[in-house]
Amino acid sequence: MRTTALFDLTGRVAVVTGGNGGIGRSIALGFAEAGAAVAVFGRNDEKNQRVLSELKTIGVPAVALRVDVTNRAGLEPALNQVESELGGISILVNNAGIASLSGGVLSEKPEDWDRVIETQLNAVFLLSKLAARSMLNRKSGKIINIGSMYSFFGSALVPSYSAAKGAIVQLTKSMAIELAPHNIQVNAIAPGWIETDMTVAVRAMPMNDEIVARTPAGRWGQPEEIAGTAVYLASHASDFVTGTTIPVDGGYAIR
Known about the structure:
It is a single chain. By secondary structure, the protein is an alpha/beta fold. Helices cover 44% and strands 15% of the residues. It is built from 9 helices and 7 strands; from the N terminus they run H-E-H-E-H-E-H-E-H-E-H-E-H-H-H-E. It has helices spanning 3-6, 22-33, 45-58, 75-85, 110-138, 159-179, 200-203, 207-214, 227-234; strands at 13-17, 37-42, 62-66, 91-94, 141-146, 184-191, 245-248. Strands 3-2-1-4-5-6-7 form a 7-stranded parallel β-sheet, with helices on both faces. Strand 5 (141-146), helix 6 (159-179) and strand 6 (184-191) form a beta-alpha-beta unit.
């Protein structure tokens, strides 16, 4: 197979949660440019329609559904709708996320902890379980989980986020072992400090200077800089790669 063909996603159907903004939007557009049909799950109708317009401009089949990943009862119907409109799901990106900037476990409210864990971890388990069942029928599939630098490092500011992202790495490994015999690869991406709506508050804090100083690239990353790794992990180029977490962080993790 030619190298360029390895990265071709034509004929694939991808679901990207939280795909209407930031990293998720960039991944969704990257998949579309590689030829995949794309379904975006997001809670904001206006943002959903905006990214849907961008996807259709690229020229691929696409849908954008209003989905709250913490609404467990709504997950299977949403995936069923995607399969009805676009075809069998071959790629799932678990990207939807929130953070509670609580300042630590002494300050964080139990309800905020629960909300973050439900969004960042429980939804990943549930959506992966549902999508994997569909992938089993075709004996192929790709599940990509979005981790974080806090998959590796602790944080006194966002303990629930850090706990969830650490668990994502272990869930990725566990699913990879289970699903490998069915030709389903499960991997994760650990973005470094990326300029998104979620990181606006951090960029206004004194720790912004510490982040830039620690990052060998000397800057924050852009959402579109995650898309290439996502396309790789969604493509035939990564068929013998599973259970790994790839940092895309400008070198932040090596210091």
